[in-house]
């Protein structure tokens, strides 16, 4: 299903996100997602080190 997505789908999703959260909250939302991804990657690396 993901293989069938193209640029228009990304634009539509972005517009929906802007409508839901509002343009003022988007930087805060992006920052939160970035921090969450960083924590997730650190935990994955820590888990791999523990397995060895």
Describe what this molecule looks like in 3D.
The protein has 2 helices and no strands. It is an all-alpha fold. The protein has one domain. The longest helix has 26 residues, at 26-51. Keywords: Cell membrane, Membrane, Protein transport, Translocation, Transmembrane, Transmembrane helix, Transport.
Q: How many E strands?
A: 0
Number of domains as seen in the coordinates? 1
| SS-based class | mainly alpha
Q: Name the poorly predicted regions.
A: none
Main pleated sheet? none
Q: How much is the radius of gyration in Å?
A: 16 Å
Helix content: over 70%
**Dominant shape:** flat
Mean pLDDT: 85
Report, as a whole number of angstroms, the end-to-end distance. Answer: 35 Å
Please report the number of helical segments. 2
Order of helices and strands: HH
Percent strand equals under 5%
